[in-house]
Write a structure and sequence with these properties.
The chain is about 35% helix and about 15% strand. It is α+β, with helices and mostly antiparallel strands.
Length: about 425
């Protein structure tokens, strides 16, 4: 049963910055985000239904972002700790340094969508000075295919993670139907376990799940460590290589109802469907661009929101192969996702860097690594009261153009892969319940 629950942004009592204690050090993860080879920013693009008034935006920021201490604090050198940084509250924040309104010659812009794409890509080439709170917002009063204007928000990752920012954004919004009320999200109501689940078989199943959790965690952590130490290597593909700082952001939307149709037909989750589409889309892209010879090699078998940086990672294997039955990708994705859910690999990857940094320092975390050229966040786009863009799920791709020179072609392959999976699911018949 689903119930609606108001969105609340809760402070973390263990977070020193939210307690406004002046001069306390940055967390180890926040310090790691400042390393020269780990310069990390979060970029958010928001489409507006109307043109933006910069003065109205500034007035809103005073009551929203500046209420969060990290958005009005400097990160300065901590003289008591070698290489350390600490938070220092800035009494006054000059919003003119943070709200950027470029002078646009609209008449000479042939493609507004391409202009916004280029503008955001250029933001990835530059950083924000540490002499000011490390965030800014760019207001582009330019009509695109999806919006009347676009706001681009950029924040250094040391200020918080994606969940923190999403919580902040949602907590600052209000219902269209009731402007004084915060938005609500569906929450699954917990069902009390039946008496049969409390008996012998119920306890046996719980014990088995605990054993499965420990076994999966042991295997995944071992693979994680072996891969991190380069004892195990992935198959070489044209997509692998060192990432540059320049990124290009592209997106493609599909119907959320169609995604749910596949989910319900195949008895999976939305995440399973998205992972399957990702795997199938990558296979199509590589096959088109690099041909069959390379693929022959690659086909060998082998919550409560709290502010801060709480990032964990896990290794998710993608099998690069063209399938006769598109549903095979979905079956594999579901099996892998179910196994990863029954593992503490992400928790291990979150706590282990903190331990290494504590005993070895931030610089001890530097090592030669090979990263994927593509990041695969999946954004569930919700636009209440705006039917043309509501009920969509959007692929957001952040790509290195040196490795992926044609990201829109990759979007086409993702869209085509989803279409094939949907058609295959429909051919298998709708669920009876």
């Amino acid at each position: 049963m689903e119930v609606l629950k108001p969105i609340e942004l809760k402070l973390d009592v263990e977070d020193p910055i939210q307690n406004c204690e002046e001069g306390l050090p940055l967390s180890p993860i926040a310090r790691l985000c400042h390393q020269p080879d780990s310069r990390i920013y979060i970029i958010v693009m928001i489409g507006m239904k109307t043109k933006m008034n910069p003065e109205v935006i500034k007035a809103s920021l005073v009551h929203i972002f500046l209420k969060q201490p990290r958005f009005c604090s400097l990160q300065v050198e901590d003289e008591t700790v070698k290489g350390g940084l600490k938070w220092v509250n800035q009494k006054e924040v000059n919003l003119d340094n943070h709200v950027i309104v470029p002078n646009l010659d609209i008449n000479n812009i042939e493609s507004p969508d391409k202009f916004v794409e280029d503008y955001v890509s250029n933001l990835s080439k530059t950083g924000i000075k540490m002499s000011m709170p490390m965030w800014d917002i760019h207001l582009l009063n330019l009509k695109t295919t999806d919006a009347e204007s676009v706001a681009v928000f950029r924040v250094h990752h040391s200020l918080g993670d994606g969940i923190s920012l999403m919580s902040l954004f949602l907590a600052c919004t209000r219902k269209i139907s009731s402007p004084n009320e915060p938005p609500t999200i569906p929450m699954v109501k917990k069902v009390n376990p039946s008496k049969s689940s409390r008996g012998f078989w119920g306890k046996f199943i719980k014990l088995w799940l605990v054993i499965l959790l420990f076994w999966n965690t042991l295997v995944d952590v071992s693979m994680f460590i072996a891969t991190s130490l380069s004892l195990l290597n992935d198959t070489k593909t044209p997509l692998k290589g060192p990432l540059s700082q320049t990124r290009r952001f592209v997106r493609r939307s599909v119907s959320l109802d169609d995604v749910k149709l596949v989910k319900n037909t195949m008895n999976t989750t939305i995440n399973d469907v998205m992972q399957a589409v990702t795997q199938a889309g990558l296979s199509r892209y590589l096959n088109r661009k690099y041909g069959v010879l390379e693929l022959d090699v690659m086909m060998k078998k082998g919550s409560k929101a709290r502010w801060g940086n709480k990032m964990g990672y896990l290794f998710y294997p993608f099998t690069i192969a063209l399938r006769d039955d598109p549903i095979d990708c979905l079956r594999e994705a579901k099996a892998t996702m179910d196994r990863k859910k029954a593992s503490l690999e992400a928790s291990f990857s979150y706590f282990s860097p903190k331990c290494f940094i504590k005993f070895g320092g931030v610089k001890g975390q530097k090592k030669k690594s090979v990263f994927w050229a593509i990041q695969w966040p999946i954004l569930l786009q919700v636009a209440m009261g705006h039917p043309p863009y509501a009920n969509k799920i959007t692929f957001i791709l952040s790509v290195d153009e040196g490795i992926i020179p044609d990201p829109n072609q990759l979007c086409d392959d993702l869209e085509e892969s989803f279409s094939l999976i949907k058609s295959a699911a429909i051919a298998k018949g709708m669920p009876t319940n």
